[in-house]
Design a protein that fits this description.
By secondary structure, the chain is mainly alpha-helical. It has 22 helices and two strands. It has a two-stranded antiparallel ribbon. The protein has helices at residues 2-27, 31-41, 60-68, 72-87, 91-99, 113-124, 135-186, 189-195, 202-208, 210-233, 251-257, 262-265, 268-271, 280-287, 304-318, 350-356, 358-368, 380-384, 401-410, 418-423, 428-435, 451-454, and strands at 320-321, 326-327. The longest helix has 52 residues, at 135-186. It has five domains: 2-124, Cytochrome c-like domain (Cytochrome Bc1 Complex, Chain D, domain 2, Orthogonal Bundle); 157-192; 207-236; 248-277 and 341-456, no CATH class; 283-335, no CATH class. Residues 1-27 form the signal peptide. It comes from Epilithonimonas xixisoli. The chain crosses the membrane at residues 160-177, 215-237. This is Cytochrome c2. InterPro entries: Cyt_c-like_dom (IPR009056), Cyt_c-like_dom_sf (IPR036909), Multihaem_cyt_sf (IPR036280).
Length: 456
C-alpha cells in the first residue's frame, strides 16, 4: 500500500513537471514583442490567418508538433538560415521549399533566440488587437456634420429662391401697370404729334446715329477678336484636369501616408527623358503580400473594402491567382488615362531637371513661397504639385511656354553640381566676366531661352 502511494506521488510529480514544461514552450516568449518583430520582419511574406507568399503562421508551433513531430528548435534553425537547413538534408525543410515553388525564404541570422521565441509566442497566442480610432470614425462624424450643414444650406437656398421669385412676380406686375399707363398716354393728341418726329425703325436710327453705330460695331469686333485670341492661347492648357482611372490609385496613401519615394515607381524620371507609367510588376512587388487594405487613412465616402477591391482589380489585370500565389499568365493591360502630355514639338528631359537641377529648382521654388506650408521637399512637386496629398492626381500647373520660361529666368544654376561643373567647365570664366564675380547665374544665361533647347 505504501509502495503504491509512493509511485502515485511520483506519477503526479512527473505529470505536473511534464505539463509545466509543455506550458513553458509557449510561455517562454513575449507575444507583444513578438507582434512588433513579426510586423517588422515577416509581414512581407506571411500573415497569421492565410497563405500569401509563404504559409499562414497562426498556430505553426502546434501544427509542426502534431503533423511533423518537430519542436521549436527546428523553427529556430529554419528562421535563422533555411538554406543551410535544406543543404543539411533535412527532409521537411526541402518539402516546404518544393511546396512553395522553390521560393527561397530570407535568412534572419540577426534574430536572437529570444526574438524568435517572441515571434513564435505571437503566432501561438496573438494579443487582442487594440481598438484604434482611425480616420474612418472621424470621417463618419465629419460626413454627418457636413450633411447637416448641407441640409441647412439647402433650406436657406430654397428660401432665397422663393423670395426672389416673389420679388420678380411683384416687379412684373408693376411693369404691367406702367405699360398700361403708357398705352393710355400714347392715345392723347399731344403724344401722337410727338411720335411723328421720332425714329421708329432700326435703319432710320442707324442713319441718324451712324457714327455711334460704327464705333460700337468696331468696339464689339475688338472684343470678339480678343476673345478668340484668348481662347486660342488656352488651347491645350488643362490645369486642374483630374480624370477617373480604371484602377483607383491614391497617391496620398502611397506617397503621403506610406512615404514611398516617387522614383521607386517612376524610376525613368532620374535616368531618362520620360518618367514613365510603372508596369504592373512594380505594383505587384508590394501587393503580392498586401492583399487587403488595413491602413488608418480612409478617404471620405469610401471604406477599407473599397480599397481592397481595387487591389483585387489589380490582381485580375496582372493575372495573379491569390489562392495559389502564382501567376496564371492571363493578363489584361490597364488603359490608364494620361494626364501630363507634352506636345510632340516640345522636348523635355526629366533626368536633366531631376539630376542636374534638383536642388536649385527646390530652392528657387521655395524662395517664392510666402507660406511655409507651400514649400516642397522633392523636386517632383515643383511641377506636379503636392502629389502626396492627392487622392486623385490632377494637373497642378499650366505647363505653358510662358510658365517654363519664367522658371528658367528665375531659377539659379548650381555651378558646383557635379554634372554642371563638368558640363559647363569652359563657360564658367565667360559667365563670371559677363555677369560679374559672385553674381546669380540663372538658367536663361546658359541657353535656357534658346528655341532649339526645347523645340526640334
Amino acid at each position: 500500500m505504501i509502495s503504491w502511494r509512493k509511485h502515485y506521488k511520483k506519477g503526479l510529480i512527473a505529470i505536473s513537471l511534464l505539463l509545466s514544461t509543455g506550458a513553458s514552450v509557449y510561455a517562454q516568449g513575449d507575444p507583444k514583442k513578438g507582434q512588433e518583430l513579426f510586423k517588422a520582419n515577416c509581414t512581407a511574406c506571411h500573415t497569421l490567418d492565410k497563405q500569401v507568399i509563404g504559409p499562414a503562421l497562426g498556430g505553426v508551433v502546434d501544427r509542426l508538433k502534431t503533423e511533423q513531430n518537430l519542436d521549436t528548435d527546428w523553427l529556430h534553425k529554419w528562421i535563422k538560415d533555411n538554406k543551410a537547413l535544406r543543404e543539411s538534408g533535412d527532409k521537411y525543410a526541402n518539402e516546404v521549399f518544393e511546396k512553395f515553388n522553390k521560393t527561397e525564404m530570407l535568412a534572419f541570422p540577426n534574430l536572437s533566440d529570444t526574438d524568435i521565441d517572441d515571434i513564435l509566442a505571437y503566432t501561438t497566442d496573438p494579443p487582442a488587437e487594440e481598438v484604434v480610432a482611425d480616420a474612418a470614425s472621424g470621417d463618419a462624424g465629419a460626413n454627418s456634420t457636413a450633411a447637416i450643414e448641407a441640409q441647412k444650406a439647402q433650406e436657406l437656398n430654397s428660401k432665397i429662391v422663393i423670395a426672389a421669385l416673389i420679388a420678380i412676380a411683384g416687379l412684373l406686375f408693376w411693369l404691367l401697370l406702367k405699360i398700361r399707363q403708357l398705352v393710355k398716354l400714347q392715345q392723347t393728341p399731344e403724344l401722337s404729334e410727338l411720335n411723328t418726329t421720332r425714329v421708329t425703325n432700326f435703319s432710320a436710327m442707324y442713319e441718324k446715329y451712324s457714327y455711334v453705330g460704327k464705333g460700337v460695331v468696331a468696339l464689339l469686333a475688338l472684343f470678339a477678336l480678343y476673345g478668340v485670341w484668348n481662347w486660342l492661347m488656352w488651347v491645350g492648357v488643362y490645369k486642374g484636369y483630374a480624370p477617373e482611372q480604371p484602377i483607383y490609385f491614391s497617391h496620398k496613401i502611397h506617397a503621403g501616408e506610406n512615404k514611398i519615394d516617387c522614383q521607386l515607381c517612376h524610376s525613368g524620371a532620374k535616368y531618362g527623358k520620360v518618367s514613365e507609367i510603372p508596369s504592373l510588376n512594380v505594383c505587384m512587388n508590394c501587393h503580392r503580400s498586401i492583399s487587403e487594405y488595413k491602413g488608418k487613412y480612409i478617404e471620405p465616402g469610401k471604406d477599407r473594402e473599397f480599397y481592397t477591391n481595387q487591389i483585387k482589380t489589380l490582381y485580375a489585370h496582372a493575372g495573379w491567382d491569390e489562392s495559389k500565389q502564382a501567376y496564371t499568365g492571363k493578363t489584361e493591360p490597364v488603359e490608364w488615362t494620361r494626364i501630363h502630355n507634352m506636345p510632340d514639338f516640345v522636348y523635355f528631359n526629366h533626368s536633366q531637371h531631376v539630376v542636374a537641377g534638383e536642388q536649385t529648382i527646390i530652392n528657387g521654388f521655395n524662395a517664392k513661397q510666402k507660406d511655409p506650408a507651400n514649400k516642397i521637399d522633392v523636386v517632383c512637386k515643383a511641377c506636379h504639385g503636392k502629389i502626396d496629398t492627392m487622392n486623385v492626381v490632377q494637373m497642378a500647373n499650366n505647363f505653358t511656354m510662358g510658365w517654363c520660361i519664367d522658371c528658367h529666368r528665375t531659377t539659379e544654376v548650381d555651378m558646383n553640381n557635379g554634372y554642371n561643373k563638368e558640363y559647363f567647365k569652359n563657360l564658367h570664366d565667360k559667365l563670371k566676366k559677363q555677369y560679374g564675380e559672385g553674381s546669380k547665374i540663372t538658367v536663361d544665361a546658359i541657353g535656357g531661352l534658346e528655341c532649339g533647347k526645347c523645340h526640334y
